[in-house]
Design goal:
This protein is α/β, with parallel strands linked by helices. Helix 4 crosses helix 5 and helix 4 packs antiparallel against helix 9. The longest helix is centred in the middle third of the chain and has 17 residues. It is globular. It starts with 66 loop residues before the first helix and ends with a strand. InterPro entries: Calcineurin-like_PHP, Metallo-depent_PP-like.
């Protein structure tokens, strides 16, 4: 396993409502104190690279019914993947171990269904490689009668903002900041930015924020901020996608800030907050990434963990068994989780 990247000056959050602490802002080129929060979730299947010189949207598998959908065949088993954060080798190993891909990284799972919960990039060594693999598997799974889809994470919003807006100042409650400064502070990798192409950004900007699969409500972040964007899954996804089409730095920053909040389901009132989400959007259990399990449990003081982070062996079920945390903390020497749902009783 590759050595984990250590991110200095990364921000930490309180229980879904506290402010993020920003450090070393001047060193990263911010124009003033950096703000609170950031987090989104993603929008469905992959994009094929655009033809040269053709500035029209490229069709994606979102627009193309899979053989399974059109034939009405039985659905295969359901899997979810926690935060990857650029750890491509660990992702390959986890997918191979579950029998979803072969040693050449090709889909071999037939009509199985696979959902990524977001946060493909930053902190780890090869975020663009992770995106490329997910896009490839989306095409191969659809051709085989299954699917591979993804949700937007806050780091997708962060990368989109860094690419589109760079050092452009954005408004925040703590002063003036920029997407580029926030991206660097939160583990942005120069090698990812150098390799990031327009079709990657297009793909990320069309990812859904939430989905329902087999009575599991899938989201990236352990926050109730989704409810600010609509009362149905379709409304939430459409509102966030529409916001990103405006190419407005402050509007994108607001999305990033809200979906970086965490711990809404952890403490007193957490189970009630999960029930409100389930009552609104459907499902019997909510599944999320975003907050590394050792951080969620209070065993480390930040999402970067540090030395001696507790070992994670599987998902964490909490909030009266209504919530499942899937970020195993791969960035802190934890585990990249790929898990079949439903979980064993």
């Amino acid at each position: 396993m590759q050595a984990r990247a250590t991110v200095e000056g990364s921000m930490t959050q309180g229980a879904g409502r506290g402010s993020d602490m920003w450090h070393n802002a001047s060193a990263m080129g911010a124009t003033g104190p950096l703000p609170d929060g950031y987090t989104p979730t993603q929008r469905d299947l992959p994009v094929v690279g655009p033809a040269a010189g053709v500035p029209i949207p490229t069709p994606t598998l979102v627009d193309t019914p899979s053989p399974l959908g059109s034939s009405g065949g039985e659905q295969g088993p359901l899997y979810v993947v926690g935060d990857v954060h650029g750890y491509l080798d660990e992702l390959r190993a986890a997918l191979l171990n579950q029998g979803l891909i072969d040693t050449e990284d090709h889909w071999i799972a037939g009509n199985a269904r696979l959902w990524f919960l977001g946060d493909f990039t930053d902190r780890g060594p090869d975020g663009v490689g992770v995106i490329d693999l997910v896009m490839q598997l989306s095409a191969e799974a659809a051709a085989a009668g299954g699917y591979c889809k993804a949700l937007m994470g806050n780091h997708e919003l962060l990368l989109i903002g860094a690419k589109r807006f760079g050092d452009t100042p954005v408004s925040s409650g703590a002063g003036t900041a920029s997407f580029k400064a926030a991206w660097l502070l939160n583990g942005g990798q120069h090698s990812d930015m150098e390799r990031l192409q327009d079709h990657h950004v297009q793909w990320m900007s069309r990812l859904d924020a939430m989905a329902l699969a087999d009575d599991h409500l899938l989201v990236h972040s352990d926050t109730t901020a989704y409810r600010e964007y609509g009362d149905t899954i379709t409304d939430v996804n459409d509102a966030i996608t529409e916001a990103l089409t405006h190419h407005d730095a402050d509007e994108t920053w607001d999305l990033f800030r809200k979906f970086t909040k965490r711990f809404a389901f952890r403490d007193e009132g957490g189970a009630a907050a999960v029930r409100e989400m389930l009552d609104t959007y459907g499902g019997r259990r909510l599944v999320h990434g975003h907050s590394p399990i050792p951080y969620l449990l209070g065993e480390v003081g930040s999402e970067d963990g540090g030395d001696g982070a507790p070992q994670v062996h599987g998902p964490h079920v909490y909030a009266d068994s209504l919530a499942v945390a899937m970020d195993g903390g791969v960035t802190m020497a934890g585990k990249l989780l790929v898990t079949q749902l439903p979980l064993p009783a």
